[in-house]
């Protein structure tokens, strides 16, 4: 399985989400509801901590409130 990346491109967010879900990136749609894929709050915190460690400003509560898709998260994360 590929290793996660620190850049917040759409592909990087897809890769990081796929890694925490234990899926191959090709098996995860950027428009699929992440909750339906099994992304729970513990895994969201894992992503938040990973992205913070890479120097990105990410807030757990903001991700929870954002559209729960990879495309929605990417738009939120890169809006500022």
Task: Walk me through this protein's architecture.
This protein has 4 helices and no strands. The chain has about 80 residues and is an all-alpha fold. Helix 1 crosses helix 4 (about 70-75). Residues about 1-5 have low confidence and may be disordered. This is Phosphopantetheine-binding protein. InterPro entries: ACP-like_sf (IPR036736), PP-bd_ACP (IPR009081).
Features:
80 residues; mainly alpha; 4 helices; 49% helix; globular; disordered N terminus
Gyration radius, rounded: 11 Å
Structural class: mainly alpha
Shape summary: globular
Order of helices and strands: HHHH
Annotate the secondary structure layout.
Layout (H helix, E strand, L loop, with lengths): L9 H12 L19 H13 L6 H6 L4 H8 L3
Give a brief rundown of this model:
The chain has 80 residues and is mainly α. Helix content is 49%, strand content 0%.
């Amino acid at each position: 399985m590929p290793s996660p990346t620190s850049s917040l491109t759409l592909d990087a967010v897809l890769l990081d989400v796929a890694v925490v879900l234990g899926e191959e990136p090709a098996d995860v749609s950027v428009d699929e509801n992440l909750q339906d894929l099994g992304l729970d709050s513990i895994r969201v915190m894992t992503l938040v901590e990973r992205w913070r460690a890479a120097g990105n400003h990410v807030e757990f509560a903001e991700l929870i409130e954002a559209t729960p898709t990879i495309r929605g998260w990417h738009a939120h994360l890169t809006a500022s």
